[in-house]
Every structure is written in structure tokens, then in C-alpha cells.
Design a protein that fits this description.
Order of helices and strands: HHEEEEEEEEEHEEEEEEEEEHHH
Strand order of the largest sheet: 1-2-8-4-5
Oligomer: single chain
Number of strands: 18
Number of helices: 6
Shape: globular
């Protein structure tokens, strides 16, 4: 059978899900199989999108194809490259908080993070008054509007990052190989191409699952539970991004209280916090408040944001819902930074009994929200995701 290699990979993928070390319940398995379904979709799509001479951008993750602790505030796109060709990238800059570009050497594997050969944001390119831009990537020397592709360049990743989900609007982006405009790729004349793509999809699927089950051990699980690291440059070479990471392990009557200074637009146009499951993917950010940006969060009079991570509703605006999870990941990000961050810019974390929250949470009275207002917040998230993330 032509699809046999993919069928065998799918069977192995199911064994990987069932044997994951954190699986202790039927719920864990149910989430794992949902994660597997998204990974199957993504792997098949990526195998068919592997076009280095006639590239186009595909969405790397989404609500149904999650991976790598995907940021709910980010639209991810990528296109494949070869290091000896020249490419034209063009589009229109939307009104999002950040738009960044990164050239990777290879892909993530269970053993390592791919080398970042170059990373920059839209401040490094010429953006016209109406938002139009165009730049080139190729083997030639760097210059205005031209970025050199280093040896081994294999993929261009684009991140469009939102802070105010309701107000900011996405842009457009396209890519072409400079010498192939108006040309077309050869059409397959037999089944060999399809057979190769199914085999590649199977390899992508297994690599994706193994990689992101191993990934948290490098950066998260070696830290004590319910703590957060100091802000540090995000691994992988992203331009002007710092992050702070940790993992939670909370009882039903406990909350993790995270306090962090609001960096301000002049320092970080994007600042956000999110929760993830032990599958290393975001929790449901459409129908639950499992993430917040600085624009969405409530900042206290002392210039700090205080987030309450708990299963039970504490009745405050900056509640991050656990949605039935007792363990998982926490990540804070700052992007488009104008300076490096120090320990004083980072978060503090403490586990508190929920019953003590009124005494432990400064400005508790002003932080409270009634149930009707909470429902409105969720409705706004649902509308924003429908408009820009699934568009």
C-alpha cells in the first residue's frame, strides 16, 4: 500500500501518546489523542507544502494543530528555502504589536533546537506609509532590503504577534523565488511523489511528537514546581524577545500568584503570559482565559500585574483558568524589546491558599469582576479568535 509508511507511523504515534510519562488518567489520554489529531493534520499539510523552488507560507500552528507551547497571541507562518536561491518576501504590515522573521537551519528534533541563522523584526526593513514592504533573502552580501541566507538555511518563520486582540489587525505576506515568477513546478506523472510525501509525513509526525515531549525537560522541568525563571533571551535566537518559564503543580484549593511589572509600550510593545498542558501545547484560549497580554490584563496602581492561576474562580480580572489541569506549564514573554531585561523586570511567584487570596492580593477589591463581566470577557475572546486567528 502506498500509504503504509504513514499508517505505520500513525500506529507508532498512538503508542507514543499512550506511553507519555505524564499520562495518569483517561482525561490525559483524551487530550493526547486530540493533540495527535492536530499533529496528523499538520504533518500531512507540511509534507505537501514542501516547496523550496515554488514556496508559499503555510500556518505552522493553530487552534487545531498545536505544538511547541504555541502562543495564543501569535500567528505563525513558515516557508521552506534553499540556501543557494534568492527569494522575494512582500506584503503589508498590519497593526499588530510585533512582526518578526527568523531563518532556521533545519528543524526542531528530539535532540536539539535548530540553529537560528538570522532573526529580525520589521524595524529592519523599509515599510511604506500604507504598510507595504518588500525585501530579499539570498546568498549574496547583506545590504539595504537584502538579508544573506547562511549555509544550511532551510526555513523562514514569520510571527505576527497581537497584544490587543480586538483592535489590532493582521497584515498580508507572500514569498516567491526571485527567478521563478510566472513559472510552474513540474506535475507528478506517477505515484512516486505521493508515496514520498506520505513517508515524509510519517517522519514529520513522529519527530513532532518526540521533540515536544522532550523539549520541556530542557527548559522547564529542571526548575522547581511553581517557580519562574528570571527573564532571559528566548532559546532559538528570536530577535528582541525575552521569556520567563516554569511549571505549575497545584491542588484544587491552591493558587499560584504571579506578580510582574508592567513593562510599558516603550520597553515591550508585547508582554504576555500563558498556560500550557503537559502535552506542551496551549490550553483552550478561545473559550477560557488561559492567557493574557498587557493590554488585556488589569494593572494595579503600583504598576504591577498580578495573575491568579487556579482551578476555582477567585473572582478577579486576572484569573488564568486551569480548566481541570493540576500540572502544566507557565510562560511569560516580552517582545520587540528596546533593552535587555534584568531580574527586577521579571516575575515573582508564590503558592497561596485560595481562601487567603483577599489578604495576599493587593488591590483585591478593585481586581474583582462580577460573573456577567467575566462572561463578556470570554465572548470577546471568542469573537477575536474567530476574526483573526481562524481567518
Amino acid at each position: 500500500m502506498l500509504t503504509q509508511p504513514f499508517a505505520e507511523a500513525l500506529a507508532e504515534a498512538e503508542r507514543i501518546i499512550a506511553g507519555a510519562p505524564h499520562v495518569t488518567s483517561e482525561r490525559d489520554l483524551a487530550e493526547g489523542y486530540d493533540y495527535l489529531a492536530g499533529s496528523v493534520q499538520a504533518s500531512l499539510r507540511l509534507a505537501w507544502a514542501y516547496q523550496r523552488d515554488f514556496p508559499y507560507f503555510v500556518q505552522s500552528t493553530g487552534p487545531y494543530t498545536k505544538m511547541g507551547l504555541d502562543n495564543p497571541d501569535t500567528l505563525y507562518f513558515h516557508a521552506y528555502l534553499r540556501d543557494d536561491a534568492e527569494y522575494v518576501v512582500a506584503g503589508t504590515r498590519g497593526t499588530t504589536a510585533d512582526l518578526s522573521f527568523q531563518v532556521l537551519k533545519g528543524d526542531y528534533t528530539p535532540a536539539e533546537v535548530p540553529d537560528s541563522l538570522s532573526a529580525f523584526d520589521d524595524r529592519a526593513i523599509d515599510v511604506a506609509g500604507g504598510g507595504a514592504f518588500e525585501f530579499r533573502l539570498g546568498p549574496g552580501p547583506a545590504g539595504p532590503g537584502y538579508f544573506t541566507l547562511g549555509p544550511g538555511s532551510a526555513m523562514l518563520v514569520v510571527r505576527e504577534v497581537y497584544s490587543d486582540w480586538a483592535a489590532e489587525r493582521r497584515g498580508t505576506i507572500r514569498i516567491r523565488r526571485a527567478d521563478q515568477a510566472g513559472c510552474a513546478p513540474p506535475q507528478p506523472t506517477d505515484t512516486a511523489t505521493a508515496a514520498k510525501r506520505y513517508a515524509v509525513a510519517g517522519k514529520l509526525l513522529l519527530s513532532r511528537l518526540r521533540t515536544f515531549l522532550a523539549f520541556p525537560g530542557w527548559f522547564y522541568l529542571n526548575e522547581p514546581a511553581n517557580t519562574l525563571t528570571r527573564p532571559r533571551a528566548t532559546p532559538g535566537g528570536l530577535a528582541t524577545q525575552f521569556s520567563s518559564v516554569g511549571h505549575f503543580d497545584l491542588a484544587a484549593d491552591e493558587a499560584m500568584l504571579v506578580t510582574v511589572p508592567a513593562a510599558g509600550k516603550e520597553t515591550a510593545p508585547y508582554q504576555g503570559i500563558q498556560l500550557g498542558s503537559m502535552w506542551y501545547v496551549s490550553l483552550d484560549y478561545v473559550n477560557h482565559q488561559t492567557s493574557l497580554t498587557a493590554d488585556q490584563a488589569r494593572t494595579d496602581p503600583d504598576g504591577r500585574m498580578r495573575f491568579v492561576i487556579s482551578e476555582r474562580d477567585p473572582g478577579v480580572a486576572n484569573w488564568l483558568e486551569l480548566t481541570g489541569h493540576t500540572r502544566g506549564y507557565v510562560q511569560l514573554r516580552w517582545q520587540r524589546l528596546t533593552r535587555d531585561l534584568g531580574p527586577e523586570d521579571g516575575p515573582e511567584a508564590a503558592v497561596v491558599p485560595l481562601r487567603d487570596l483577599p489578604e495576599r492580593l493587593p488591590y483585591y477589591d478593585s481586581a474583582r469582576v462580577p460573573p456577567g463581566e467575566w462572561r463578556g470577557r470570554i465572548a470577546a475572546r471568542q469573537a477575536a479568535v474567530a476574526e483573526r486567528m481562524l481567518g
